[in-house]
Specification:
- The protein is an alpha+beta fold and about 140 residues long.
- It has a single domain, classed as PH-domain like (Roll).
- It is about 45% helix and about 30% strand.
- The chain is built from three helices and seven strands, in the order E-H-H-E-E-E-E-H-E-E.
- Strands 1-2-3-4 form a four-stranded antiparallel sheet. It has a three-stranded antiparallel sheet with strand order 5-6-7.
- A hairpin with a 3-residue loop joins strand 2 and strand 3.
- It is elongated, with a radius of gyration of 18 Å.
């Protein structure tokens, strides 16, 4: 069984996504500030500190804790910073897989693989597109 980490570009992609979300939130917060500065500051200041925590600490912790192990019969996914989650998917239980790549993922050559089983949908995020064939489980 081979073990792998998510893409080394994952922190950069996640930081860009978070910054874009923060830009939209700041724009909306500015609109609310026109009508009620107190509400805008009450919501905006904690969100700003959450943004700083995520940019400086949480993204690195998330990337270090996200691992997957694949062999010819199953894939094991370990993830979580505060709440740890271990997932084992057997090849014969997977109904089909999807390959998802956003425009930002195309630039950084990362993707998400979505496994559909009878009881759940499991995401394997921020994988290098070079290593996708080993964990995709498509019939050849």
């Amino acid at each position: 069984m081979t073990g792998s980490e998510i893409s080394e570009k994952a922190p950069t992609v996640t930081r860009i996504r978070l910054t874009l979300a923060m830009a939209v939130f700041s724009f909306l917060g500015g609109g609310v500030f026109v009508f009620s500065p107190l509400i805008s500051l009450t919501v905006g200041i904690p969100v700003f500190f959450l943004y700083l925590y995520a940019m400086l600490k949480h993204i690195e912790l998330w990337c270090r804790s996200y691992r997957y192990y694949a062999d010819d019969r199953c894939i094991k996914i370990r993830k979580g910073v505060f709440f740890k989650k271990d997932i084992t998917l057997f090849k014969n239980k997977i109904q089909y897989t999807q390959f998802l790549q956003t425009p930002l993922g195309r630039v950084f050559h990362t993707c998400t693989i979505i496994y559909h089983t009878a009881g759940a949908v499991v995401y394997l995020s921020e994988i290098d597109t070079d290593t996708v064939d080993g964990v995709r489980f498509d019939e050849k």
